[in-house]
Write a structure and sequence with these properties.
Length: about 290
Amino acid sequence: MNSLFEYSDSLRTPYESFLFDTATANFPIHPHWHYFMEIIYMIEGTAIMNCDDNTFVTEPGDMMLFLPYQVHSIYGVSNKTLKYYVLKFDMGKLSAGVGIHFQSLFRSAKGEKSASLCFRADELNDSQVKWIFEKSCEEMCGQQYRYQDMVQSYISNLLIMILREWQKNGFDTEHFQNIDDEDSIYYITEYIDSHMQDNLKVEELAERCHMSYPYFAKCFRELYGQSCKKYIAFIRMCKAEELLISTKLDLNYISQETGFADCSHFIKAFKQKHGITPKQYRKEKN
């Protein structure tokens, strides 16, 4: 199955901030989705941004939100260069640090008319918003002491500004659907990420979410675009690829860390996906 899901290692990189330039980066951005949030701030050019069934034409100074699980894409209207700032972040990690349940608030906003996903330049305090994006990029590039804490504070301030604007339009910030961080299906992928070395069973994950196996399987496929079993295999393979490239750990250790039954199963699964062995893959990438 050709999934639209975009993987991000939220355990290692809960926040990302960068300036995207179509003159030097791969473009257009084809339809995809992920379980982290993404915010775009336009700097140069005109872009067509699709989010689920909605289309927005954005200009410099406009800001676009892509909520978790929303399928989105970005295209240009001409061959002219596009430049825009990008903020990507794990809502769960953010909530844990500031005492505000952003995850639940922004999930409640999905589909609400009072919670617009596109902010025009004349609706924003443009200088302050642009400053937040610029400073976030500076912190991520410089990576000085506690830089992730600084980026988290900038993102939190931006989200509060967004909630205030929504509140002016009638969005209720006091009543929202709260969820149990540990047991909810919305957080089960984080649990899978941090327990991939264990013998994960879909039946036990369903129990953790207080769901029957068939209902959990149906909900998981709807949310993540693939079966839970395939997702677990996908996450393990992604982590194995990362360890092969970024470390000198031996194959036995990598197979244990990523939850494969043993090294031979790991090599077999890896070769089935890539057509080459893990050792060949490491040599090729390095």
